[in-house]
Write a sequence for this structure.
């Protein structure tokens, strides 16, 4: 039976995979597991529950609240807020757990359930496994005054979150004054707080895709569809644009000429800024194996060490916490600034990127040019035995030959899918033609050697 929890909570098609019944059961189990681990000892447990604007989030958040309250947890609905906002409130309000209903950048029909432990941290694998084991087991239900109560936040939590974001920029009043910024909210969870934070920091803000109706989240908008943002930045005469995904834990950017600035380039810009300010712990940036080689070369030139992890923000977070590092992230724009957040925060990223533009007086294009992107090709090879990708001698020989051909000017990565009979072949090289040729050659070898 497949594991209930994936790399980022429970996720699937709402009302088919992720049902009200599942939301209720997993919330009851979460209360029991966290309670028996000592989190709830000595006081009445409390939780915050937030969601993105998906229509399914309405009934799923109600089911989560019902499950928690039935297990004796007092619940505060904080309404529509970004995932990092719920994580922040879990810590700032000193509650025992937080729950976010969102499927992030996925299409509207999907939804998911993410849990945060006390302090706003995502649950470790062992706690997730314990919650899954606890589901369906008999339990003694509280009665009378022992049941939890459910209340609705009047909006003060959103204000507290925005204040926290702006305060992260320091004491200087209006640090973004003079900048015009276009913000694409993906009709998602940051449709209000994202523009509000940028305006509170002094920016002149032009907002697009900030009218969520329950159905239009991520639809041809946001970080997965930046075309409208690229066109709007030029038309508005803006200095830059930023794009969030549905739950606003990601941020990509666009320079004044409409060119996309990806997560690798944003990481590089912020890493240099933090190092100059003495805030880059151990002069180290944490990236994943999918980050472009151009980022590593740029960081080497700047005297910044890079630590690579597997793909997924949870692995970036684990490495950051283990090493005490201040900055890490993914090419997708999921950046973590551990001094201010326990998870990726798109609005926080946008604020600090814009602050770097304002402080240096340089354009975003100029700053991004210091982190060049090498041509990168990704080829999916379906219908293969993914388990043999790392042990097949023929594949290993082909990879070694490609790496020798590329030398220091490129790299090769074979990454088996975690769920499908598929191997991803990624090649970076100094020029596109070279990358394409090697990727096709390797894909042919993978298919020939590993075909099912």
């Amino acid at each position: 039976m497949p594991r209930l929890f994936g790399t980022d909570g429970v996720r699937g098609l709402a009302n088919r995979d992720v049902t009200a019944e599942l939301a209720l059961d997993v919330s009851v189990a979460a209360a029991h597991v966290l309670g028996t681990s000592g989190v709830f000892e000595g006081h009445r447990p409390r939780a915050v529950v937030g969601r993105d604007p998906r229509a399914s989030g309405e009934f799923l958040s109600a089911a989560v609240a019902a499950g928690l309250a039935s297990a004796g947890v007092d619940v505060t609905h904080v309404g529509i807020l970004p995932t990092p906002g719920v994580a922040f409130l879990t810590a700032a309000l000193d509650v025992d757990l937080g729950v976010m209903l969102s499927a992030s950048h996925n299409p509207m029909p999907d939804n998911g359930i993410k849990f945060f432990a006390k302090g706003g941290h995502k649950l470790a694998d062992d706690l997730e496994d314990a919650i899954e084991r606890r589901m369906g087991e008999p339990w003694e239900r509280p009665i009378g005054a022992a049941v939890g109560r459910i209340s609705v936040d009047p909006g003060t939590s959103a204000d507290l979150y925005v204040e926290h974001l702006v305060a992260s920029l320091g004491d200087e009043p209006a640090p973004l004054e003079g900048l015009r910024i276009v913000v694409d909210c993906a009709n998602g969870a940051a449709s209000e707080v994202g523009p509000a934070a940028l305006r509170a920091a002094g920016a002149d803000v032009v907002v697009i895709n900030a009218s969520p109706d329950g159905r239009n989240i991520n639809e041809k908008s946001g970080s997965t569809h930046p075309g409208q943002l690229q066109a709007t930045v030029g038309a508005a005469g803006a200095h830059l644009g930023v794009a969030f995904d549905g739950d606003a834990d990601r941020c990509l950017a666009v320079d004044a000429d409409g060119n996309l600035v990806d997560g690798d380039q944003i990481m590089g810009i912020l890493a240099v800024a933090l190092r100059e300010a003495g805030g880059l712990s151990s002069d180290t940036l944490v990236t994943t194996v999918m980050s472009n080689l151009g980022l590593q070369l740029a960081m080497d030139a700047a005297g910044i060490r890079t630590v690579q992890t597997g793909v997924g923000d949870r692995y970036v977070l684990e490495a950051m916490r283990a090493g005490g590092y201040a900055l890490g992230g993914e090419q997708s724009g999921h950046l973590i600034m551990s001094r201010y957040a326990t998870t990726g925060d798109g609005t926080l990223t946008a604020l600090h990127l814009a602050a770097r533009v304002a402080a240096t007086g340089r354009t975003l294009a100029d700053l991004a040019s210091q982190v060049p992107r090498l041509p990168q090709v990704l080829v999916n090879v379906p219908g293969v035995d993914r388990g043999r990708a790392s042990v097949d001698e023929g594949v290993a020989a082909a990879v070694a030959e490609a790496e020798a051909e590329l030398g220091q000017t490129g790299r090769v990565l074979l990454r088996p899918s975690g769920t499908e009979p598929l191997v991803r072949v990624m090649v970076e090289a100094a020029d596109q033609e070279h990358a394409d040729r090697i990727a096709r050659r390797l894909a042919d070898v993978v298919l020939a050697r590993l075909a099912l």
